Amino acid sequence: MHIARRTLLGALAGSAALGAVGVPAAPAAAAPTGAAAAALARLLPRHHEQVTFRTVARRGGKDHFRVSGSAGRITVEGTTPAVQLTGFHWYLRHTAHAHFSWSGERTGALPDRLPAVRTPPARTSNAVHRFALNDTNDGYTGPYHGWDYWEREIDVLALHGFNEVLVYAGADAVYHRTFVEHGYSDAEVRQWVPGPAHQPWWLLQNMASFGGPVSRELLDRRTELARRITRRLRELGMTPVLPGYYGTVPPGFAQRNKGARVIAQGDWGGFRRPDWLDPRGPHFAAVARTFYATQRELYGATSMYKMDLLHEGGNPGDVPVGDAARAVEKALRTAHPTATWAILGWQENPKRAIIDAVDRSRMLILDGVSDHYPKVTDREADWAGTPYAFGTIWNFGGHTALGANAPDWAQLYDRWRTKPGSALRGIALMPEAADNNPAALALFSDLAWTDGPVDLKGWFERWPGYRYGGDDANAVRAWDVLRRTAYGTTRADGWSEQADGLFGARPDLAVNRAGAWSPRKLRYDAAEFDKALPALLAVAPALRDSSAYRYDLLDVARQCVANRSRLLLPRVKAAYDAGDRDRFGRLTGQWLEWMALLEQVVATDERHLLGRWLADARAWGSSDTERDRLRDDALSLLTVWGPRASADGGKLHDYANREWSGLVGGLYRMRWTTYFRELDGALAEGRKPRPVDWFALEDRWTRRPPAVRTRPAGDIVRIARTVASRL
Question: Residue 539 to residues 542, 554, 720: CA-CA distances in angstroms?
Answer without folding.
Answer: 8, 14, 13
